[in-house]
Design goal:
Elements lengths: L8 E24 L5 E19 L2 E16 L4 E16 L2 E2 L9 E17 L6 E23 L34
Amino acid sequence: MTIADKQHQYREIITKAVCGKGRKFSTVTHTVTPPHQPTSILGAWIINHQYEAVRSGDGIEVIGTYDINIWYSYSKNSQTDVAKESVHYVEHVNLSYVDPKHRPSTAEVSADVVQEPNCVEANISTNGSGVVIRVEREFSVELVAETKVCVAVLPGGCGDLDGKELEFGLGDNDFEDLDPDLLDDEL
C-alpha cells in the first residue's frame, strides 16, 4: 500500500525549529602601541577568544573579546618584548533567512565560530610607534523558535495497515549511484 493510496488529511503542529540563519566573514584592523618603538615584528597572534550571541533587530549580534599578543624587537633589533592588548568587539550578522511564522517570544539565538579570529598581517605603522594588525574572523548564527508546520496525516493513523509496510516509491536500483565512501560508518 502506498501513501498515495490513502486520502491525506493535514494538521498544523507547533514545533521548535531553526527559523533564521546567517553567516558573516569580516576583516578588521587594530593598532597596538607597544611601550618601545618597534624595529621589527617577530610574531602576532590572538588568544583567549570568548563570545556570546544576542538578538538585535533584523539579525544577531556576536559580542566578544580576545587578546592580541605582538612579539617585536626594539633598540635596533637588540632587545625583544611582547605587547598585549585586549579587544572588545560587536559583530552584527544579518539573517539571510527568517521564518515569518516563528513566535518571537520563544526565540533563542546562538553563534558558532567558522574561523577563529586570526592575525593575517602585522606591520609597523607609518609613524613607527605602533603595530597595525589585520584580523579575519567568521561566524555562523542561528535563531531557533517555535513555529507552525503543516504535516500530512493518514486518516485513522497507522493502525489500519494491519502490519503492512508503507512503500515510499523507492525501487531496488534507486541507490546504485551512491558513493559508499560518503556513507557514515556508524550507520
